[in-house]
Amino acid sequence: MKIALVTGATSGIGKAVAESLAEEGYNLIITGRRGELLNRVASNLESGGAKVLPLCFDVRSALEVKSNIGGLPAEWRNIDVLINNAGLAVGLNPINEGVVDDWERMIDTNVKGLLYVSRIVSNYMVQRRSGHIVNLCSIAGKETYMNGNVYCATKHAVAALTEGMRLDLLKYGIRVSQICPGAVETEFSEVRFKGDKEKAAKVYKGFEPLKAEDVAAAIMFMINCPQHVNINDMTIMPTAQANSTVFYKTPEDQ
Questions:
Q1: The dihedral sign for the CA sequence 195, 96, 89, 68
Q2: 250: Cβ–Cβ under 8 A, 6 or more apart, which residues?
Q3: Every domain of the chain and the residues it spans
Q4: How far apart are CA 230 and CA 232, in angstroms?
Q5: Average pLDDT rounded to a whole number, residues 215-236
Q6: Contact indicator for 134, 223 with CB cutoff of 8 Å
Q7: What's 3-253's CATH class?
Q8: Which of 159, 141, 170 is nearest to 230 (CA)?
Q9: What is the DSSP string of 74-125?
Q10: Quick check: 12 and 215 in contact, CB under 8 A?
Q11: Residue 40 neighbours by CB under 8 Å, 6+ apart
Q12: Of the residues 26, 116, 124, 151, which is catalytic?
């Protein structure tokens, strides 16, 4: 049985990827900050036959990552696939009105959290000279848009780290990929607008956004390529989205 580790698996893309991996016969290590939701996801995955190890901690804490991921039981250390999904956008302010706490949450989660987890898991893979790391980037890692300054910077960092990881791990036969989604209707905008559901709903009004399952399907394609094939970088967008800021919406919603 293969083992996959998915961070941020309590909802959205992380949950959808975990479900897809379970369907393909993987045993799963799933992480998240919300214990009740995490256990619910674990229970649903186990009901489908997967063996699941839920770990409730915050990837922003190097100590928590080390304790949980570094302290895995031996039977869970042979990780074949790492999905670095945990990430968020908080706030949508011009740089001169930025909220420092928002900046720190994004940098600590999107960049440092990815590094903390990858540092440990990559060593498990190096020992076996095999594995596949998939980093959740974003169209914001390829473009920059107004008021997205720090979020875009963190996703540009993910893109650079993905390239660097691929170079460093090349000699061990470890594949490293990133996927860059456009608009996906998850909790993303609700988190960005700090719980304002009405404001978040307007983001996806007038067009059909991606679903978490769409991104999960694309990630599964990457994972299921033959061992000699690595998808370095994939951008996936709704048909109605041309780039980070240009959408075609129904006339009444434009």
A1: negative
A2: 206, 207
A3: 3-253
A4: 6
A5: 98
A6: yes
A7: alpha beta
A8: 170
A9: GGG---SEEEE----------GGG--HHHHHHHIIIIIIIHHHHHHHHHHHH
A10: no
A11: none
A12: 151
Taking a C-beta distance cutoff of 8 angstroms, is the pair 141, 126 a contact? Answer: no
Residue 149 in this model has a pLDDT that exceeds 60: yes
Helix (H/G/I), strand (E/B), else coil: 53: strand
Strands 27-32 and 81-84: unpaired
User: Is 232 within 8 Å of 134 (Cβ atoms)?
Assistant: no
User: Using CA atoms, how far apart are residues 186 and 14, in angstroms rounded to an integer?
Assistant: 10
CA distances from 179 to 27, 47, 54, 144 (A): 22, 29, 24, 17
Amino acid 154: pLDDT: 98
Question: How is residue 7 annotated by DSSP?
Answer: S
- 158/165 Cα distance (integer angstroms): 10
Do 144 and 152 form a contact (C-beta atoms < 8 A)?
A: yes
Which residues touch 198 (CB under 8 Å, ≥6 apart)? Answer: none
pLDDT in tens, 56-107: 999 999 999 999 999 999 999 999 999 999 999 999 999 999 999 999 999 9
pLDDT(202) > 70: yes
Name the percent of the chain lying above pLDDT 90: 98
Mean pLDDT of 120-142: 98
151 is catalytic: yes
Question: Which residues make Cβ contacts (< 8 Å) with residue 23, sequence separation at least 6?
Answer: 48
